[in-house]
Amino acid sequence: MNTATLASLGLYFALMIAIGLYAWRKSTADSEGYLLAGRNLPPSVAALSAGASDMSGWLLLGLPGALYAAGLVEAWIGIGLFAGAVANWFIVAPRLREQTESYGNALTIPQFLANRFPDKAIALRVISAIVIVVFFTVYTAAGLVGGGKLFETAFAGALPCFGMSDYMLGIVITAGIVLVYTMVGGFLAVSLTDFVQGIIMMLALVVMPLVVMFGSGGDAGGSLAEVPVPGFLSLTEGLTALGFISAVTWGLGYFGQPHIIVRFMAIDTVAKVARARNYGLSWMAVSLVGAVAMGLTGRAYAERNGLVVDDPETIFIILSELLFAPAITGFLFAALLAAIMSTISSQLLVSSSSLTEDFYRLFLRKQASETEAVNVGRICVALVAIAAMVIASNPDSQVLGLVANAWAGFGAAFGPLIILSLTWRGMTGAGAVAGLVTGALVAGLWIALGLNADFIGGEGLYEIVPGFIAAWAAIVFVSKATQGEMTGVAAE
């Protein structure tokens, strides 16, 4: 490993820690500052923070790997995600920003639900917090797998491992850097680092496919159609009805991702949500097109040059080393780590906030001071990170698979719940509890029974579909049955 590459990564790590220290001095005096940056994020920071924390290593590893292996048909996942993001910004963002403040200045999603449905406050806070911590631990593990794969593929033997494998060393370093700036600087540090990381990610996804296709030494231009995969450039080759539904319904997950929608809560005013939406969707469109192009051009390059790629999810790492000068390679590796770290930090902080606000302050120390709550939050960040490291320790883990399971779990449990709580006056607390439990259970059972791999004797159906439908139906049915008991109504 060239020292210039390591130097570039070192500068990136130093920048992340410096941002954490800045945020520590700026906004960690109380819970609102530590968990929501005082609800004072500029639109550009909120937008890129939402995008970067959303996409994670999936954008540079999972999606390009899927395109590399199967062709353009896998782009339906990205198309579905973009459609879901558009709906999320229009439906959820302005309402959530307004209502979380009007309903008791809620700092977490469980706290908002409790304030919105006071008759079921304890049940909603506890159940939603459990769902958040469990699924986010798995989701965080997916990000750490990406860090492990980077070090295993690109840094083999280049760094002292202290008795660990290169893969495990990558997990430890990735988690360690994230823990430093997240524990120290809280939500502001996470959001500012996300902003920087989002810019780095987008630049890498624009530059890489162009260099692969047209740069000196790329030599892949014009060879896309020569890839020996039937219908490699077709959006419909081998696409079945179930496959199409499973791909495009990834977009349903957006409504229920706490680490994304919490950004909406932190935008400084409701009036600036529209500007944040324009920034966020523009960033997402460019980044998704770049990721799709990365997978297609990477496969073309590999075929033309006889490159053997054992794990398609590492194509970005491999080409970063082959086609770029060492210093630029370090920048590209930083882009990958940026994608991974931005999501991990967001997930750790949301998990920590639920453990602190919805367990510690609710049951153990109701009169805890703001300083005590912030310090407990920092401890919870570390605990969730350790659990995720244990899950990620298996080097055979697949980024896309882990992300898919966690994404579906959140989308099914929280998606219908968030949409209806913000838009339907007739929703009741009992309906909210029923939807939350039903969505999580149906998605979990669908995975456990293997129906996401084999459904009615054919290919699987993505678990978010039955989970989302079942949760929506449960909320409507139970709410209509208990409307006479309703004690709170949503704001317009």
From TrEMBL:
<comment type="function">
    <text>Catalyzes the sodium-dependent uptake of extracellular L-proline.</text>
</comment>
<keyword id="KW-0812">Transmembrane</keyword>
<feature type="transmembrane region" description="Helical">
    <location>
        <begin position="314"/>
        <end position="340"/>
    </location>
</feature>
<keyword id="KW-0813">Transport</keyword>
<feature type="transmembrane region" description="Helical">
    <location>
        <begin position="122"/>
        <end position="147"/>
    </location>
</feature>
<feature type="transmembrane region" description="Helical">
    <location>
        <begin position="429"/>
        <end position="449"/>
    </location>
</feature>
<feature type="transmembrane region" description="Helical">
    <location>
        <begin position="75"/>
        <end position="93"/>
    </location>
</feature>
<feature type="transmembrane region" description="Helical">
    <location>
        <begin position="6"/>
        <end position="24"/>
    </location>
</feature>
<keyword id="KW-1133">Transmembrane helix</keyword>
<dbReference type="InterPro" id="IPR038377">
    <property type="entry name" value="Na/Glc_symporter_sf"/>
</dbReference>
<protein>
    <recommendedName>
        <fullName>Sodium/proline symporter</fullName>
    </recommendedName>
</protein>
<feature type="transmembrane region" description="Helical">
    <location>
        <begin position="399"/>
        <end position="422"/>
    </location>
</feature>
<feature type="transmembrane region" description="Helical">
    <location>
        <begin position="238"/>
        <end position="255"/>
    </location>
</feature>
<keyword id="KW-0997">Cell inner membrane</keyword>
<feature type="transmembrane region" description="Helical">
    <location>
        <begin position="167"/>
        <end position="192"/>
    </location>
</feature>
<feature type="transmembrane region" description="Helical">
    <location>
        <begin position="373"/>
        <end position="393"/>
    </location>
</feature>
<dbReference type="InterPro" id="IPR001734">
    <property type="entry name" value="Na/solute_symporter"/>
</dbReference>
<keyword id="KW-0915">Sodium</keyword>
<feature type="transmembrane region" description="Helical">
    <location>
        <begin position="281"/>
        <end position="302"/>
    </location>
</feature>
<dbReference type="Pfam" id="PF00474">
    <property type="entry name" value="SSF"/>
</dbReference>
<feature type="transmembrane region" description="Helical">
    <location>
        <begin position="461"/>
        <end position="478"/>
    </location>
</feature>
<dbReference type="InterPro" id="IPR011851">
    <property type="entry name" value="Na/Pro_symporter"/>
</dbReference>
<keyword id="KW-0769">Symport</keyword>
<keyword id="KW-0406">Ion transport</keyword>
<keyword id="KW-1003">Cell membrane</keyword>
<feature type="transmembrane region" description="Helical">
    <location>
        <begin position="199"/>
        <end position="218"/>
    </location>
</feature>
<comment type="similarity">
    <text>Belongs to the sodium:solute symporter (SSF) (TC 2.A.21) family.</text>
</comment>
<keyword id="KW-0472">Membrane</keyword>
<keyword id="KW-0739">Sodium transport</keyword>
<keyword id="KW-0029">Amino-acid transport</keyword>
<dbReference type="InterPro" id="IPR050277">
    <property type="entry name" value="Sodium:Solute_Symporter"/>
</dbReference>
